[in-house]
Write a structure and sequence with these properties.
Elements lengths: L5 E6 L3 H11 L4 E7 L6 H8 L3 E3 L6 H4 L5 E4 L4 H10 L5 E6 L2 E5 L6 E5 L11 E2 L2
Parallel strand pairs: 1-2, 1-4, 2-3, 4-5
Antiparallel strand pairs: 5-6, 6-7, 7-8
Helix pairs in contact: 1-2
The structure holds nicotinamide-adenine-dinucleotide.
Length: about 130
């Protein structure tokens, strides 16, 4: 039987990551399992720790290739190379969502092909209107 909880990881816990984490923490049925940031003083790291979320601040994201239960990874560093590294290393079960040159890029489980782009981030955690990839 499927589980009811959606399991999410955040890579990047700066201003945007903090805003997304705040929104996710208010949504029932979501477990934010991991928060990663290369800077231990990033604001989202403090919020994650306050909420008992597992954090890593050495720049590595090994857990994301090892954990088959992560449904969605938000890449919120603003760095295309981080998005591409996650695309290559994430567990195949996980979807990947990130921002690249102002557009959302999404990678579905089991593929490395971008599914869609959306016009903008929205701090409520919802996406802008999808457009063709
Ligand atoms: N500012 C916002 O309100 C907001 C909201 C939603 C999305 N975004 C998007 O989020 C992205 C980042 O913007 P920001 O304003 O949060 O910038 P920011 O500089 O505040 O945060 C980026 C974070 O990524 C971390 N980081 C950089 N390289 C990393 C790496 N290799 N591994 C782990 N962490 C790393 C930095 O330490 C920093 O904490 C942009 O694409 C932006 O469009 C921003």
């Amino acid at each position: 039987m499927g589980r009811d909880t959606d399991i999410i990881a955040l890579v990047g816990a700066g201003k945007g990551g903090h805003a997304i984490l705040e929104a996710l923490l208010r949504i029932p049925g979501i477990e934010v399992r991991y928060v990663f940031d290369a800077d231990p003083s990033a604001p989202g790291i403090a919020l994650a720790r306050k909420n008992g979320i597992w954090c890593r601040t050495d720049g590595l994201v090994d857990e994301l290739s090892a954990d088959p239960d992560v449904d969605l990874i938000f890449e919120v560093t603003g760095k295309p190379e981080v998005f591409e590294a996650l695309r290559a290393s994430k567990h195949p079960n996980s979807s990947l969502l990130g921002n690249r040159t102002g557009h959302i890029r999404a990678i579905a489980p089991g593929t490395s092909v971008p599914l869609m782009r959306a016009s903008r981030w929205c701090c409520t955690g919802q996406l802008g209107r999808p457009t063709a990839a």
